[in-house]
Amino acid sequence: MERGKKKYIGIFGGTFDPPHKGHISIAEKAMKQLSLSVIYFVPAYLPPHKLDRDFVTAKQRLAMLKLAVKGHRNFKISTIELKRRGISYTIDTLKTFKSRFPKADFVLIIGADNLAQFYSWKSPKEILKLASIAVYKRKGFNRSFKKKDIAFQKIKGDLLQVSSTEIRQRLRNGVSVTKLLPKQIMQYIKRYSLYVNPPDSR
Ligand code: ATP
């Protein structure tokens, strides 16, 4: 995509419980294909669509995210939602980004599962005024990836067969996650014995 001198900032929100290779792969592809200057990973404090779930602590999710982005130039982490606490609404985050970088344009990076529920987010129309949307395909969400009622660009790439849910389940069952999780994160998880408890609502 042709980009002028304008600064294009990618915003990649998520629970990152834990961050996985899919997240990194999506961000790498978005960075290249959309000619972004930087991508901010934004860990949610309380994701509105996952209020019935328990997470490892925000501090632990942040620590794992730091390990995940290490060595990736132009991947940054914004703790804006963690500091704001409460339910993490994308619209609030975008407004803060806009006030910090008034001249930049924003690209919200999401998976097709999030695109499918986009209109259930808080203030979706306002979000679309503040950012453009870039979507990565996701298993089970083919239809929403093709939908035309929201203007979005596609981030091209193969289907990524990974989710944090699957990783948590595998860890609990003692199944290997080597292919899904960066090594440093696996070491962190082992060190702090994360995701070993029997399932609650996770
Ligand atoms: P969980 O399984 O716990 O719901 P997740 O794997 O979806 O987690 P999140 O941290 O919630 O991970 O995701 C952050 C963003 O990355 C979301 O926009 C989500 O759609 C996207 N995403 C994560 N994994 C994939 C994947 N395999 N393919 C496409 N998009 C993905």
Mean pLDDT: 92
How many strand elements? 6
Alpha-carbon distance between the two ends: 39 Å
Strand composition percent: 15-25%
Main CATH class:
Alpha Beta
Q: Class by helix and strand content?
A: alpha/beta
Q: Which series of helices and strands comes N to C?
A: EHEHEHHEHHEHEHH
Could you give a quick summary of the protein structure above?
The chain is an alpha/beta fold. The chain has helices at 21-33, 58-69, 80-84, 90-100, 112-116, 124-130, 142-145, 164-173, 183-191; strands at 8-14, 38-43, 75-77, 105-111, 131-136, 152-155. It has one domain (8-193): Rossmann fold (3-Layer(aba) Sandwich).
Description:
- There is one protein chain.
- The chain is of the alpha/beta class and 202 residues long.
- It has one domain: Rossmann fold (3-Layer(aba) Sandwich).
- Helices cover 38% and strands 16% of the residues.
- It has nine helices and six strands, in the order βαβαβααβααβαβαα.
- α2 (58-69) links the parallel β2 and β3 (75-77).
- α2 (58-69) runs antiparallel to α9 (183-191).
- It starts with 7 loop residues before the first strand and ends in an 11-residue tail after the last helix.
- The mean pLDDT is 92.
- The structure holds adenosine-5'-triphosphate (ATP).
- Adenosine-5'-triphosphate is lined by residues 14-17, 22-23, 26, 110-111, 113-114, 136, 138, 160, 162-165.
